[in-house]
Amino acid sequence: MASQGRRILPGLEGTDPDRPPPPLTSDLHVEIFLRVGSPADLARASAACISFRRLISDPGFLRRYRSIHPPLHLGFLSYAEEGFQPVEAPHPNAAVARAVARAADFSFGFVPFPIKRCRCRQAWHLRDARDGRVLLECRSITIVDGEECLDLVVCDPVFRRYLMLPPITDELLASVELQNQHMCYSSSSFIPSGDMEETSFSVICWVFSGTKLVVFFFSSSSGHWTVGTSTSWNDLGFQEEVDSLSSCQCVHGCFYWKVNYINKLLKLDMNTMELSAHDLPPDHEDEDIVIAESGEGKVAMFSQVGYDTSVKYYNLLQNSSEKSHEWHMRSTIRLPDQYTSECYINGPAEGYIFLAGTPKDEDATHPAFFSLEIKSLKIEGVSGRTSDFQCDVPYFGFPPSMSSRRIQ
User: Fold this and answer.
1) pLDDT per residue rounded down to tens, the chain (408 residues)
2) Residue 314 and residue 374: Cα distance in Å, rounded?
3) Which of 65, 72, 76, 288 has the maximum number of C-beta atoms within 10 A of its C-beta?
4) Do the beta carbons of residue 127 and residue 187 sit within 8 Å?
5) Which of 406, 401, 407 is nearest to 61 (CA)?
6) CA dist 293 → 251, 344, 353, 374 (Å)
7) How far apart are CA 67 and CA 58, in angstroms?
8) Residue 361: which residues within 8 A CB-CB, separation 6 or more?
9) Any residues with CB less than 8 A from the CB of 385 and at least 6 apart, and which?
10) 196: three-class secondary structure by DSSP
11) Chain-centroid distance, C-alpha 220
12) CA triplet 147, 245, 233: central angle to 5 degrees?
């Protein structure tokens, strides 16, 4: 019988109120830690307690945690010599970003150069970053026959691991009527993966000449390249030679490229491997665009027209045949009032695009970086910049204690 005056909560009748509750079991610990919203707080908990550290480092736990909580925006990888610039205070991820900067090697000094006798000095150049991996490219010209070589490597800067990708063979190029010298008109990117714990990854490489565009795919599971699709510029409706492509983004299972100096957008449907060309809104021939997901399976576009302090936000409307594309401008988003003269856009990544603006203060010569959350259109300061913003790639990840090896 309970002591007089002591109230027993429903469901606890028959228990001894003076006895301490039993210790939490490991499965309850898992459920508690899965609800910790900040990976930084979770990493600190693991550093403070050995038993917590064992639990949090378990691959099964990490897989479940990453399926619930998105990775943190930690900074930007640059084509320039500084390599990595972490986000800065008062950004909430600043402390974690500094820890990642100390732990990782963003100079990629652990990646060897291909063993070739070349006319030019070899260097790795940044191409893409996704899921903690970084895609680098090295172009060189051999001394013997003057042939240009394209080498790609996927690396993990936190654990200093890398995987050199095999070259696209002459036989594979010949199968789509291309030759090695056409490889100078090419670039590459990661293909988004739905499972962040998997060590496998895929890469897309697009190659074009004066007459055609060819898309190749690499899978780390198979270890070799395959031809995805091949289409002539005439079949896509272009009457003039295409000089270059930019703004490669993957949205809802489709890749999009902006055709430079032409008011056109290329689309590759990954399900059908069909390439198609579509009109952009007027006056976008020379402008920067970002294609992004806008929720409910819709496609959005952010564009910066001219040297302006605002970004235009469009939705893509499609009819029932999904062959006709019409852009509908929804809003104009302005930078904070203290910035003027120019606005550059970059991205997208993990539900954000990124903006750079030049301060009105004449003494501030470098632009400042902002993130724009696509869902809410909220702008947040990220850092100042000292390099060319348009060449930077946003880097997302977790604290080193929560980062799993992306390359085996």
Assistant:
1) 444 555 554 555 555 666 666 666 667 777 777 877 777 777 777 666 777 777 766 777 777 887 788 888 999 998 755 689 899 998 889 988 998 999 999 999 999 987 665 656 678 889 999 988 999 998 876 655 666 778 999 999 999 999 999 989 889 988 988 876 655 568 899 998 765 446 789 999 998 888 889 999 999 999 999 999 999 999 999 987 788 888 789 998 999 999 988 899 999 999 999 999 999 988 888 888 899 988 777 899 998 765 667 888 999 876 544 555 789 988 988 877 777 656 667 878 889 998 887 777 666 656 678 889 998 999 888 887 655 566 688 999 887 777 777 786
2) 12
3) 76
4) yes
5) 401
6) 6, 19, 11, 8
7) 14
8) 338
9) 85, 356, 366, 367, 368, 369, 392
10) coil
11) 18
12) 85
39 burial via Cβ count (<10 Å: 0-12, 13-18, 19+): buried
Distances (CA, A) of 383 to 83, 223, 353, 372, 399: 15, 38, 14, 13, 19
Give the residue carrying structure tokens 């490219």: 137
Could you give the C-alpha distances from 169 to 151, 172, 193, 226, in angstroms and in order? 12, 5, 25, 10
- Kindly give, in sequence order, each residue whose CB lies less than 8 Å from that of residue 358, ignoring residues fewer than 6 positions away: 339, 340, 341, 342, 364, 367
Distance CA 273, CA 364 (A): 47
Tracing tokens 């691991």 back to the chain, one arrives at: 161
Indicate the Cα dihedral angle 126, 130, 132, 134, nearest 10°. -20
Peptide bond preceding 90 in cis form (omega within 30 of 0): yes
Residue 390 tokens read as 């348009």
